[in-house]
Amino acid sequence: MRKTWAPRGHTPLLRFWQRHDRLSVISGLSVSPGRRHLGLYYRLHRTNIHQAEVCEFLRHLLRHLRGPVIVLWDNGRIHKGPPIRALCHRFPRLHLEFLPPYAPELNPDEGIWTLTKATLANGRPDCVTTLARDLLATLRRVRRSPAALRGCITGSDLPLFLR
């Protein structure tokens, strides 16, 4: 929920109902070292994301990115374990680096979700399909905006490497 506007003296009412449908998204920003090209990759799932989906996402990145791929991510349980280690062993150009625990300010991907949630705030989709459509449209808009992607990286507390 975000702030909204209404005529003075008329409290806006947002109607909702509790649903148990869900969408889970895994995403990542890419920066090519040579050209400084920025990219946004994501995968949408109708269930919770587990290590199998993380491995699929990493394989997706490896198909689309050339050369060594260094992944910076948080210390979530789904980012660790035998399937992830096996994937790294199978693809030596994949390198995983973990951010410190409890440091979302270092994660540029948090900026992507700040932008996305701000766009989707106060919406009330009637079904999970409508939510998925709106979410994908928002992510495509962010993906096409180099300024937004750069802002997510420079807005994080990572050392600046885009200068």
Précis, in short:
The chain is an alpha+beta fold and 163 residues long.
SSE arrangement:
Layout: E1 24-31, E2 38-45, H1 51-64, E3 69-73, H2 82-90, E4 94-98, H3 109-120, H4 128-143, H5 146-154
Parallel strand pairs: 3-4
Antiparallel strand pairs: 1-2
Helix pairs in contact: 3-4, 3-5
Strand order of the largest sheet: 1-2
Question: Rounded to an integer, what's the Rg over CA atoms?
Answer: 18 Å
CATH C-level class: Alpha Beta
Summarize the helix and strand pattern as letters.
EEHEHEHHH
The tally of strands reads 4
What CATH calls the topology is: Nucleotidyltransferase, domain 5
Strand content: 15-25%
Number of helices: 5
Mean pLDDT rating: 88
Question: Considering the protein shown, what is the CATH homologous superfamily?
Answer: Ribonuclease H-like superfamily/Ribonuclease H
Describe the model:
The chain is α+β, with helices and mostly antiparallel strands and 163 residues long. It has a single domain (24-154), classed as Ribonuclease H-like superfamily/Ribonuclease H (Nucleotidyltransferase, domain 5, 2-Layer Sandwich), CATH 3.30.420. The protein has five helices and four strands, in the order ββαβαβααα. The chain has a two-stranded antiparallel sheet with strand order 1-2. Strand 1 (24-31) and strand 2 form a beta hairpin. Helix 3 (109-120) crosses helix 4 and helix 3 packs across helix 5. It is globular.
